[in-house]
Structure formats: C-alpha cells, structure tokens
Amino acid sequence: FGSREDPTGYAGTYHDGIDLATSAGTTIMAARAGKVVESQYHYSAGNYVIIEHDNGYYTYYMHMMQPGIAVGSTVSAGDAIGYVGTTGSSTGNHLHFGIATGIWSGFMNPAPFIGL
C-alpha cells in the first residue's frame, strides 16, 4: 500500500491496496456483508467488484478471472464473489484488495483491517 515503482508502466506509482498472491481460480470471498455497487472490467483493475458496507466503507477486489456476482446483489461475509486471475495491469495471479471511504476515493491501508 502506498508509493511504489510502477511494475507494468500502466498502473501508476501509488498502490491503493494490497496484493495477495495465490493460484489462478482461487475463490474470492466478500470480507463483510454488503451490496455490490460495481462489477465490471477496467483497463488497470481488470475484472473487479466493489462492495458497499453498512459501516461506510467500500471493499475492492481486482484482477479477477471474471467477476462472479452482479451489481445490486447483496452478500454476506464469506460469500463467493469471483475468482483470482491476472486481468488488467497485473504481473501475475493475485487478488488486489482495497478498502476506501468512497467509490474510487479515500483509500486506506487494508492490512490493519485484516490483521497483517
């Protein structure tokens, strides 16, 4: 999270989340209950999902093989929402996980939220 060298030449020098490396196809689960507000493709984020939560935060799940859930869906913590991939500006299979206070704004380091 934070300033870094751009690994692809397209991703930028500020990293607004953390990367969790794992195998392609690994199930991605919602971190908390909420409502899916975006589920689509972006040239940098690849296939991604954004979930709005009751505590005022949004969670971001990027670089999926494909999003596994539609906009407007409600999820519980632990529900499957997609699968790990390497779409968009990515250098390998991983989940880019982010937490923010708005849609594409107010990013904060997610590591303390998940105990890293």
Report on the structure:
By secondary structure, the protein is mainly beta. About 0% of the residues lie in helices and about 50% in strands. Strands 3, 4, 5, 6, 7, 8, 9, 10 and 11 form a 9-stranded antiparallel beta sheet that branches. The protein has a two-stranded antiparallel sheet with strand order 1-2. A hairpin with a 2-residue loop joins β10 and β11. The N and C termini lie close together (about 10 Å). The model has no long low-confidence stretch (mean pLDDT about 90).
Mean pLDDT, rounded to whole units? 90
Beta-strand percent range: over 45%
Poorly predicted spans: none
Supply the number of helical segments: 0
> Helix coverage percent of residues?
under 10%
* Backbone CA Rg: 13 Å
Listing every helix as H and every strand as E from the N terminus to the C terminus, the arrangement reads: EEEEEEEEEEE
- Classify the secondary structure makeup into a structural class: mainly beta
Q: Could you give a short account of the major beta sheet?
A: 9 strands, antiparallel
Gross geometry? globular
Oligomer: single chain
Tally of extended strands?
11
Distance between the termini: 12 Å
